[in-house]
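Researcher: Batch entry, complex prediction.
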Amino acid sequence: MSHDLLVIGAGAGGLSAARAGVRARLATALVTDGPIGGDCTFTGCVPSKTLLAAAAAGASATDALARVRATVARVAATETPEALRDEGVDVVEGRARFAGPGALVLDDGRTLAAPRIVLATGATPLLPDLPGLAAADPLTTDTVFDLDGTPGSLIVLGAGPAGCELAQAFARLGTAVTLVDRADRVLPGLDADVSAVVADALRREGVDVRLGTGPADVEALGDGRLRLHDVEADRLLVVTGRRPATADLDLDRAGIGIGADGAVVINDHLATTTAGVFAVGDVAGTQHTHAADEMGRIAVANAGRPAWRRRRFRPHLVPRVVFTDPEVATIGLSESEAGPDAWVAEIPMSAVDRAVTAGREEGFVRLVAGPPPGTRRLTRDGLRKVGGGRLVGATIVAERAGEMIAEVGLAMRTGALTGRLAQTVHAYPTWSLAVRQAAAALATGASPGVTVRRAVR
Ligand SMILES: Cc1cc2nc3c(=O)[nH]c(=O)nc-3n(C[C@H](O)[C@H](O)[C@H](O)COP(=O)(O)OP(=O)(O)OC[C@H]3O[C@@H](n4cnc5c(N)ncnc54)[C@H](O)[C@@H]3O)c2cc1C
Ligand SMILES: NC(=O)c1ccc[n+]([C@@H]2O[C@H](COP(=O)([O-])OP(=O)(O)OC[C@H]3O[C@@H](n4cnc5c(N)ncnc54)[C@H](O)[C@@H]3O)[C@@H](O)[C@H]2O)c1
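Model: Structure tokens for the complex:
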């Protein structure tokens, strides 16, 4: 059967690519070996955010898990094969591998060919090589949301976004949680003071946070319980990262390269090392639903264009939100990444009236601004004279940080001077007024409660 576009994988990236194909009037087939919606709907964002919301609302463990199942079913019902076929996508159920550069073969022997292929096969949980791990029947994000009830005690191994979110959710549902990471802080990819706020919040809620741990065996205790280091628990949840799903795809038959990090090698245009084949989402090394979604659209647009007319995917414009309480939202460069030419404006949430009225003063807004392109290193006064410079990044820790980061993304996307945020009237008393207050300090010289400094590594 012949198509214009083949998309492999029906998660966020594949769905976005397939819909973009239909919009571009391409005969589009979406090949999937799993349910439509992928990780986000079934094992990622939707169940984890539902569990967090139910736990925050004080639901019982049983109700929270029932709410997870109901919400996943509700979201999944909007993305059935039938609904996609109605949209014009030819949904092909089966597992695909490459037979050659423009050709796929399915597990039942069917073949498909197209001049454009988008690879969107996602990622799978990565389990560390710990002696005794398999025998302890560890939970992963593929299985934890299927539990009938919450365990009395739980070790969460890995304090990245998944570990911190799930540790907080289970603790709030009454489980005795120990959060373990070999790094010396939670969320080790973020600035150290972000980690400190989140670790404090988790500890206040009773999570036993153990950091800087060395390698250890997992020991089965015979009664269904297990021990890791000196911690005993009913169950172990392993959230130590994810591996791009490239196995059994026969990528080498099509000449598609894989990098040292295990992700498919792509360039700024999302093209792989093989002409006509593009890769998007987790299989290409990104880690968020909205990144996969954006990449799907860009890949399809680029697949029909010569290299000089292609759009670039700009990872620095992708916000990242950790949905702990408080939330952590980042975009672009952190202070330590920005370099000594950048300026930083920072306001603690204790100086923001909405946070004070809500009794939620932990956290801060940190804007990082650089000189406009072509401008030399600027003094503090020089920065003010160029409208506060242009934002190159932001880090927000606050109850609603995930909502607050969007306007920073808009400013960065449009290249607006920081002063534009300061000139924009924000309703009082909103959380996002903190962003305006910080922007005002860069653009006008002073703003109550805000400190301005050169970026520190
Ligand atoms: C617990 C958890 C919470 C998360 N929370 C968030 C969040 O709040 N916000 C956020 O932005 N991101 C979150 N993520 C990450 C997000 O879920 C992923 O980044 C996103 O779903 C990746 O989409 P994708 O399309 O790249 O891959 P996937 O959704 O994994 O889709 C890939 C699909 O490809 C199919 N497939 C694989 N191989 C083949 C093959 N050979 N043939 C046919 N089909 C194949 C699979 O069936 C799979 O469904 C979370 C992840 C986890 C684990
Ligand atoms: N809110 C969100 O957007 C969200 C939420 C959850 C997950 N995700 C995505 O899902 C993916 C998986 O998340 P994750 O938190 O599992 O991965 P991660 O790679 O972000 O974090 C893994 C953590 O495990 C630790 N670790 C690794 N091996 C270890 C070991 N042997 N012993 C002890 N600690 C170990 C690391 O130090 C790190 O802190 C990521 O791509 C993440 O971005 C996103």
